[in-house]
Each structure stands twice: as C-alpha cells, then as structure tokens.
Amino acid sequence: MGDKMRQFGLVIFGVIAGVMLSLNFSAVANKETPEVAHPLPVEELRAFTEVFGRIKSDYVEPVGDKKLITEAINGMLTGLDPHSAYLDMDAFKELQIGTQGEFGGLGIEVSMEDGFVKVISPIEDTPAFRAGIKPGDLIIKLDDTAVKGLSLTDAIKRMRGKPDTSINLTVIRKGETKPLVFTLVRAVIKIQSVKSKLIEPGYGYIRITQFQEQTGENLIKAIEKLFKESTVPMKGLVLDLRNDPGGLLNGAVAVSAAFLPADSLVVYTDGRTDDAKMKLKASPEFYLRDKRNDYLKRLPPAIKTVPMITLVNGGSASASEIVAGALQDHKRSIVMGTQTFGKGSVQTILPLGNNTAIKLTTARYYTPNGQSIQAKGITPDILDESAKDETERLREADLDRHLSNGKPGEAKSGTEAVKAAPKPEAKPITPENVKPENGEVKDNKKQEPPAEFGSSGDQLLTQAMNYFKEGKDSAVAKSSAKVEH
C-alpha cells in the first residue's frame, strides 16, 4: 500500500510540476527576471500530492479526480481575498448575464465569511430589498438546508430558481437576539441601471443602481430628458450612488466622463504586472466599446458646470466609489453621506477553457489624487450625522482576508470616519452561539420596509437640496486642474 501511495504521489507531483513549468509558473506569477524568479515550491507540492493521494485511498467514499482538483483550485483562490474565486460553467455564465442587467433570483450582493453567506447589499427594487434584507445579514439556512458547508456558488444556485417560487432565508442580524426568517418569492431581476426625475424646475436627480454595459448611454438619455423637462436653466444636479454595489469599470469611466473635462484622469490602477498598471481617463477609448458611437457628444454643454452633489453611503462600492472619488478629487462635485464600502481592488476574469474562468484580484484602484480606495473607501465632504445603521454596516475592511489598503500610514478601515454606535445590551448573535435548527426563530413580519431613495421622505436628498438653495453651491461647480500620475 505504501509503495503504491508513493508511486501515485510521484505521478501526481510530476503532472503538477510539468503543468506549472509549461505555464512558466514562477516567471508569470511574479513578472520577475529569470535571475530572481522563485523556484518551484517542491516541499509544498509534495505535501499537496501526499494529501491528494491519501484522500483517494482513505476517504470514506470514493472521490473523483475532477472534484478534488476543482476544490483545490477553489481553496487557492478563496484563501487569497473575498473577491477572488473559481467560476465553473454556471458561475461564469451568471457573471456574464449579471453584467447585462437581467437574471433570475432574489437580488442580493453576497460574499462568504466563515462558511456562511454574508449580505453586502440588497439590490434596489428586488425581492430581497422589498423584504427588508439588510447589509451585514448572515444567511445561515436556505429553506431547510444549512449554509455551513456549501460553497458560495452552491449557495447562490440554491437562491436562484424559477420566477414565482419561494424560498425561506434564515438570517442572524447584529442587535437581534434570535434568528430572523424571511420568505422571499423569486423573480426575474431586471435592474434599471439609471433612474431620474426632475425634483423641481432647475433641480435634477439621477440615481445609478449598478454599473452595466448600457449605463453610460442610459445616463446620457436621463440627462437629456432632465434638461428638456426643466422650464428654467439647471441650477443643481444630485447624483445618487447609495447602495450601488459597482459593476463594470468602463461604465464608471463613462459616468465620470459625462461630468468631467475631456481627458481628465478618472482612476488609475497599480499591481504587479504591466497589464495591472493603467490610467483611465475621460476619453472615448476608455469607456466606449463601439468607438463609432460616442454618446457623450450628445450631452448639453451645461452638464460640465452645473453644480453637483453626489450621495454615497456604506453600500456604495467599487465602480460607484471610483465615480465619487473622481468627482471629489477634481472638485467637480460635493460628496455627501457616509463613508463608502471600500472595495478598491481590481478583479480580472481569466478564462480557462470549457467555459470556466478564475476571477483574480490583480490591482488596487486609486483616485486621481492618489488615494487608495481599498479597505478605506471615500470620505464624504459632508457627513450625514443622522444616518441610521451606518455604524453597523458591513464594509470591505470587515471581511475576512480583505486586501490591505496598500498605502503606508493609511488606515486600513474606513469605519474610522463613522461615529461608533453604542453596543446593544442584548447578547449579539454569532455563528458560534446560535443553532437555528433547534432554536426559536423570529418572523420577519414586523421588519420595517427600507427607505426609498429619491422620495419626499429621503432626508439626505432634502439636505442636498437645502445645500443648493442656501447659496453654498458656488464652490461645487468649480473644476480643478487635471491631476496626473
């Protein structure tokens, strides 16, 4: 038995080493010269083959090679940071569908933490949003299936399904002494990326819920509509990015370019490879897929100078932070609200063949003035002191294995800019001390519906309008000189 195990281990070791050498593993991974390239990690590979062989021979049930290798790939990627992942055929297809703005399910942006599904943000106008699912909720059961032990991909598959079918989510929420149960009815999620309305003559409101392939063009249509509807020249524009989880980078560049001078630096990235070092500017080559149709040319000239206020909160992440940071650094817009999520890392989709891929973190985002967004976020010019639940909101810096800020001397967490909330008297619920399958659960019927952004009861929007009308908007419209790095 021992001889067979050693022979098997040597075969696997040889296969892995051969593949790694054929891919020029050490040189590609580090982009270093041959003189300083790291050698293959022989001892670690030997340990891997020994574990592989022991599972094949001794595990209680037979396990296929494909499953073991796939799980090993999963482990390599999920162990790096919360956003790197292996995408099997279904996950890769769902990613492609999601960026086009339509998919089936509940409408939740999620991550994995300690084996449980953690809600980053419910997507506006979806079953999850309307049911009262909140950022930071920890999903511990899907119907009668415990989440512990499922991969994130498996959990997402269970949450998705045919429209009009229901699913029970059992969640634990900070501040609650018992688990909450939500019954959600699945729907075809059609995300309206851009919403707009004329608050009153001269004052427009534009909300971006997610950055998709058509976001830039839809934004232009919304701006054109607002300018036509207003019976007086535009005096102020509110750009609402609250609870916008991000999306496509070119969409963020397009939105920024709509308000900034041509060729202004929007964002730059820095990583270990040459491909990861980019400067993205407000010019067509960085936001257009079809260079023959520059939709920004249709913009009314006044959009470059109309006073602006950008609204953000702890649910504003990734692409929305890029936009807020660019407008803030160029002094094109006042940023109002609470500290943003802090998701400032670049994920590159690398196809592997057979319709699978890996999503790998390859760089960090930096604002035009050189501030790293990662694990810190964008600090508003005007903090919303009245915001409820923002001190308890989940942020990038709260995620396990989150990537560091990358700037020496800078805070790793953006929560420092938010006032600490008093601790609740009740003992907090954690995955370690709750057993929902045996304990009492609390129904969700008494949960308050989420506030509607852009409505007459939107306090932050009211603050923005007051700011405009009090005559403080003169400084908002000024644009600073272009910043280069």
From TrEMBL:
GO molecular function: endopeptidase activity; serine-type peptidase activity
Pfam family membership, one: PDZ_2
Key words, A-Z: Hydrolase, Protease, Serine protease
Stretches the record annotates as Disordered: 388-466
GO cellular component, one term: outer membrane-bounded periplasmic space
Sequence ranges of Basic and acidic residues compositional bias: 388-403, 434-449
GO biological process, one term: signal transduction
InterPro entries, alphabetized: ClpP/crotonase-like_dom_sf (IPR029045), CtpA/B_N (IPR055210), PDZ (IPR001478), PDZ_sf (IPR036034), Peptidase_S41A (IPR004447), Tail-specific_protease (IPR005151)
Compositionally skewed regions (Polar residues) per UniProt: 456-465
Keyword Protease: yes
Biased composition (Low complexity): 416-432
Domain spans labelled PDZ: 92-160
Family classification: Belongs to the peptidase S41A family.
Name of the protein in its database record: Carboxyl-terminal processing protease
Source species: Nitrosospira briensis
Taxonomic placement: Bacteria, Pseudomonadati, Pseudomonadota, Betaproteobacteria, Nitrosomonadales
